[in-house]
Amino acid sequence: MGAWAIAVHGGAGVDPNLPKERQDEAKRLLTRCLDIGISALRSNVPAIDVVELVVRELETDPLFNSGRGSALTEKGTVEMEASIMDGPKRRCGAVSGLTTVKNPISLARLVMEKSPHSYLTTPGAEEFAKKQGVEMVDNDYFITEDNVGMLKLAKEANSILFDYRIPTVGTCGAAVDSHLQMNGLPISVYAPETVGCVVVDREGRCAAGTSTGGLMNKMSGRIGDSPIIGAGTYACELCGVSCTGEGEAIIRSTLARDVAAVMEYKGLNLHEAVDYVIKNRLDEGKAGLIAVSKNGEVACGFNTTGMFRGCATEGGFMEVGVW
């Protein structure tokens, strides 16, 4: 029997001027999710079940950008994506383009367990959801008043907002131009606030899951790193990884898989591997990740101002942080 460990994240790239009350609100949610996961792990719930349980909690709370509270497309609708991976046999499931599935992470798991495929997108994903009897809701359920306001700001600035809740505002009230680019095009700075969870249980089984609504004012049909196995999510016999940040950069670097790769091929431990990929694989991209190893280690890394994150181990270590 080994030792369990768990980590959760709520997005990388935090606004340095983020109000303290928002920081505290985020920390309370991350702490609640950790407590849910810790309770399950103490009861010997398998890692893959804990990942789904925790990410569902994050999707249900509108604070972060997944499920209810997801970012809005340029059309003012929500298109969600998620993936989950079970390390022991590298089984995986992913979904994207969801508009009516209440908990995308659970549909991703059903794709893994109840279909012959690894990835389904709309409309097939939602047809599969109906056949599986998952809970469906109107698209309006996911839309919050705050996000409607932020979409308006993004359209006025003719930009994609990374931190759609805390935009950079100039003296005239318009979003300030940023030097950050995505695929050569300018975007505004700060957090996409994707959510994720990684877990290793007492049996040494690693699992990972990631869920998001994507970028505010994104083009309809845009898919980020979150549902792409090896980019936003990866788990194997060595570790479990969930990423967050600039999706296009994470995709190019296959960031989550690279953590496992340098552990396997270079013999690095978890902390060394996380540090290596953050420093050497993102080029000019901005991102962060959380990871656990089969040995009960936990680590996080980011090259942004901050990352909403929390982690805990069976040995009694627990930490929730922003910066």
Structure description:
The structure is a single chain. This protein has about 325 residues and is of the alpha+beta class. The chain has a single domain, classed as Glutamine Phosphoribosylpyrophosphate, subunit 1, domain 1 (4-Layer Sandwich). It has an eight-stranded mixed beta sheet. It is globular.
Distance from N terminus to C terminus (CA atoms, Å) equals 34 Å
CATH superfamily grouping? (Glycosyl)asparaginase
Largest sheet: 8 strands, mixed
Which structural class is indicated by helix and strand composition? alpha+beta
Shape: globular
Would you identify the regions where 5 or more consecutive residues have pLDDT less than 50?
163-192
Radius of gyration: 18 Å
Strand order of the largest sheet: 4-3-2-8-7-1-13-14
CATH topology: Glutamine Phosphoribosylpyrophosphate, subunit 1, domain 1
Report the mean per-residue pLDDT as an integer. 89
CATH architecture: 4-Layer Sandwich
Give the strand tally: 14
Order of helices and strands: EHHEEHEHHEEEEEEHHHEEEE
Number of helices: 8
Strand content: 15-25%
- CATH classification, class level: Alpha Beta
Indicate the percent of residues in helices: 25-40%
Keywords: Autocatalytic cleavage, Hydrolase, Protease
EC number: 3.4.19.5
Subunit structure: Heterotetramer of two alpha and two beta chains arranged as a dimer of alpha/beta heterodimers.
Catalytic activity: Cleavage of a beta-linked Asp residue from the N-terminus of a polypeptide
